[in-house]
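subagent[fold] <- orchestrator: predict structure for attached chain, return tokens only, no commentary.
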Amino acid sequence: MKAAVENFKKELASIRTGRANPAILERVKVDYYGTAMPVNQLATISVPEPRVLVIQPWDVSSLNLIQKAIQTSDLGLNPTSDGKVIRLVLPELTEERRKEMVKMVHKIAETSRVAIRNVRREAIDQVKKMEKNKEISEDEMKKGQDEVQKLTDKYIKQVDEICAKKEAEIMEI
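subagent[fold] -> orchestrator:
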């Protein structure tokens, strides 16, 4: 369940909000000498202004490769280069685009909730199996099921809180 929440956080980090965040480049892979590498392993990514990312490659020869990888990614951003660094200016999000992104966040949240519920189902099946094999009593089985449900509620609540926070961040102008 904890892993599902952590995975949810990682997925949300890559969703673009109105502010510049280096995490949006985590999914962008650069073909660097035949190896697909994330941008953050080839360059320093900084945020000098609220809506600007500056990517400074350690190896200047990889500048064009990084630029191409960003252009072909699903981010919809157009990088500009001065020969030493790449600048990514994040455009202002339209109201319609913000609503689309909120829907996407809710979809990812629901996937995480389903993953948590699947873990609950497996745990409850395991507890029932233990009772059937006479490893634990019926009372212990009920207590185990209650504990699993409490954990499930706790983690689903965490997903809901993270989702609400991300939604507020996206809708913020």
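orchestrator: received. Logging for downstream: Strands lie at 29-32, 35-38, 43-49, 52-57, 80-81, 86-89. The longest helix spans residues 95-132.
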